[in-house]
Amino acid sequence: MERLKVRFSDSTDSNLGGLSSDAGVSKSDVARAAMQIGLVFLNEYEDSQESSFMGLTDFIKLKSLDSLK
Questions:
Q1: Which residue in 46, 57, 64, 67 is deepest, having the highest Cβ count within 10 Å?
Q2: HSE toward the beta carbon, residue 58, CA cutoff 13 A
Q3: CA gap 5, 23 in Å, rounded
């Protein structure tokens, strides 16, 4: 398994911690699940209603910037 060099904002880390506590699993488990859910969404993005407002590349860039807040 390859490690990705990803840093999370304080708010994302807090959300991971909260979900981790609620579900009784590790923050890593929550982050991996969220990554899989997100990848499924992105792979199906072109068929979604959101794609009529914004292309996939712009959507990814926007959400990447949003995640730094």
A1: 67
A2: 7
A3: 25
In contact, 29 and 17? CB cutoff 8 Å: no
Q: d(Cα 66, Cα 27) in Å, to the nearest integer?
A: 20
DSSP label at residue 50 = G
Mean pLDDT of 61-67: 88
Q: In the predicted model, is pLDDT for residue 5 greater than 90?
A: no
Residue with tokens 């590790």: 26
65, 9 in Cβ contact below 8 A? Answer: no
Q: What is the tens place of the pLDDT at every residue in 19-63?
A: 999 999 999 999 999 999 999 999 999 888 888 889 999 999 998
